[in-house]
Prior knowledge:
Distance between the termini: 26 Å
Oligomer: single chain
Amino acid sequence: ARRLAFTPLLARLAPLAIPQLFHGLSCPLAPIFESPLTLSAIAAISLNALMRLGIAQTQTTTMPTDQPYGAAVRETLDELGERWGLHRATINQASNALHELMEVVATLTSGPITLEARTDDLHLDLRLLYAGEPMVFSERRPTAEEMLDDPTAVARMSGWLLRRLAGRATTFDREGQQGVWLRFES
């Protein structure tokens, strides 16, 4: 990585040191290759993008199980968003979804709820881990009658909402614990 740090400097010096290298280009991109400043800027931007690939940041937090969850969710995600430089819209969307998820998971468990947050240049992933009943993601919205008569309809409604709030939502099992994975575009 340190050796690559000199690439923009070498790209800047190449047209000056070896002018015949790029002289005679007849394509529309010829001015880019003949200009030392432009060539070095492109090399620096390209290397920066290349070196950031695969860099991910993670954070694991135990969420409070006492109500209301809204303040704890908002505070946790605001802190992560600020530290990781995430867009405000992504944090707002993730906060709304995580708050909804916490409301449902609290009815499915009586133990601790662990939040694993991970971000890279493309996504924000939130994973909630808990011991208890699995979360159900409904394919359709429960009807008004179901909401009044069916005791599971509220949890199904939350699952249906979560599928719309997150870019991707799914459940998983890890070492005897239930998990819910939410993905957001960042």
